[in-house]
Please model this.
Amino acid sequence: MTGIPIAEQERMVEAVLFASAEPVSVAELAARLPEGADAAQALANLRKHYEGRGVRLVRVQDRWAFRTAPDLGFLMQRDVVETRKLSRAGIETLAIVAYHQPVTRAEIEEIRGVAVSRGTLDQLLELEWIRLGRRRMTPGRPATFVVTEQFLDHFGLESARDLPGVKELREAGLLDNRPAPAMMDSAADESQQGED
Amino acid sequence: MTGIPIAEQERMVEAVLFASAEPVSVAELAARLPEGADAAQALANLRKHYEGRGVRLVRVQDRWAFRTAPDLGFLMQRDVVETRKLSRAGIETLAIVAYHQPVTRAEIEEIRGVAVSRGTLDQLLELEWIRLGRRRMTPGRPATFVVTEQFLDHFGLESARDLPGVKELREAGLLDNRPAPAMMDSAADESQQGED
Amino acid sequence: MQNDPLSVSDRLANESLIVDVEGFEGPLDLLLMLSRTQKVDLRRISVLQLAEQYLAFVERAKGLRIELAADYLVMAAWLAYLKSRLLLPPDPAEQGPSAEELATHLAWQLERLQAMREAAAQLMARDQKGRDFFARGQEEEVTQHRRTNWSASLIDLMRAYARLRTKDEFRPFVMDRQNVFTMEQALDRMRDMLGFFGEWGDLADWLPPGWDTHPMRRRSVTAAHFSAVLEMAKRGQIDLRQGGTFAPILIRRRA
Model:
């Protein structure tokens, strides 16, 4: 009737279904397409064209829509890896364990001057950066904490004894509490190298 | 490597891109596809497959998206979301940012010969068609403006190099930053600065 | 013709421009509009003629008591200046750019503005998303699995420990001391050298080596040593003398 080739009608249906926010009925398609187009036929051709592809033309009740092929559903999941800095309490507690191991919770609190929350220790345990060591042979037999292989691995240390002492930290400029990270980093690198 | 047939990879890319209204980067595709898949090759095949269809695979910088073919826009007229009409100042400012980016506010004003009102830049920023670029390393470190990926996506441009007539304008020297010959006021300003 | 370069139709156009003055986006916009009456390539435009058209416009606006914004009047003043220089033979003794250069730049500015207008029109005539082509209407949800990677660097660890171990001697701000010689240092040094001070000697000669290269270091070391010798004089260890303002400061051990 109209002389619109069926391939062109197929293109039209493809575009309309793609852009529509809702599934579209054959009647709606017919209303949108130019006079005389055969929406049902175009739809059938289109459905055939998408057979076996990554998206398929599916019927939802009496309406039509594009949907991801069911076997590719796994692609619609995304793993988001988020990197977050350890809290100040966490890093301080970790530092105390590293420098003083084996160390009890009471000793950590004494050095930090504040109570150590259960959550802080839990987090470090969960990260497998610290683990429980031997119990201290003192009244109450308190548990001690030590750093793990994973800790040494993460921080690139051969052993916890490789950590620089306070004097070296000072010489490396780390005790100057001023914000010049680039400078301090390089200074710290040097002090580490100096120890090798 | 993985033994995933390229046709299967093409299906996967098709599914991921179909699911997203926003352009997806090659890096993200690669992250979502199974290990060892060749997203770039799959994209190339897919683009070919969609040539001449009702939807097309388009590139925006290093991102890819399906978009309906522009010649079928008339079918979607009822889906048109009325966007706020840009003022003449807005349109000109947008063009200046696109063709001269990165460009400072003072440079925009120099080209238009008139002050840029706060609202003009705000509107373009709000539309996410322009954003702040790097500060210019000149006295005062003025902010610069550049166009965004959303801008390129909206106007169907693969990159800012594809702006209409950009090559001719550059060749004609009309995108140069040609300072005004020093005279009267500006000459006086400079001699004052020289004394500082 | 020379006196009135505008045709009747141009004058009529000019009058309608006056009525429409609010519609112009500044003097450059107006100049661009006026330049169209010359009906030539913007590169071959007569800036002199353009200046005259603009000045005529401003005169007429004044006659009609139309309030013109300051930048229109600044442009008028500048164009009047440019016009006079274009009409006069070039003065070889004059500094700065020639009238020709100024005119060329103005023509280039107009050409650039025109080019940007055309580019803007071409841009807006492109197929636009949401009008001519469309994005996927029905996005499919992507399920996100969030995994947090806790990070800390060795430097964070050491800094945290350093912070803990030095809580008592915490210095909130430490100057960069590379170029600073303190009075305490100077005092220690001068006290050690006290035995060597004989007859009157210039303080400058007693300054440590290597500190006179950099002006900042020289200032710091001089100030530190000056304060140190004042302190030593107060304690009765040395005598100080200066012949006049900026004269050398002489010191000797008090007998």
